Amino acid sequence: MNNYTDILRQHHLKATPQRLEIANALGCNGHMTIEKLYEVMLKKFNSISLATIYKNINLMIENAFIQEVKIPNEKSVYELTKEMHSHIVCRQCNEIHDITLDLSQTAQLASQTSHFKIDKADLVLSGLCQKCQQI
Length: 135
Ligand SMILES: [Zn+2]
Ligand SMILES: [Zn+2]
Fold this sequence. Notes:
Elements lengths: L3 H7 L6 H13 L4 H11 L5 H13 L3 E4 L7 E4 L5 E5 L5 E4 L4 H11 L9 E4 L2 H4 L2
Parallel strand pairs: 3-5
Antiparallel strand pairs: 1-2, 3-4
Bound molecules: zinc ion (2 copies).
Keywords: DNA-binding, Metal-binding, Repressor, Transcription, Transcription regulation, Zinc
GO biological process, one term: regulation of secondary metabolite biosynthetic process
GO molecular function, one term: transcription cis-regulatory region binding
């Protein structure tokens, strides 16, 4: 098991039992919606409220310990912060995979045509996962 206490501290966050559990859940499950996270947290802390989880999540996002992945037309999911990557979502079962894509050329082209200074390049692609293609 990862030592999330230290990692939380590196992000200037006190390692409360709730935060450790959030870190652990995201570490084990990958991308999670707030509802799924709530479900898991309730098993450990039976009186925790959704508001408490939101408060912790928001603070952990502010401190870059976790990040929000915005999926078009779906609920946001949360994951531990790691290297910049893109996502691919199955439109049938909502399974989410991380994919590393080189978007530097795309970003450059977008910058040239829009005159924006681009500082973030990630994508959410969608389709059918291998399992769902067989149904
Ligand atoms: Zn699928
Ligand atoms: Zn991801």
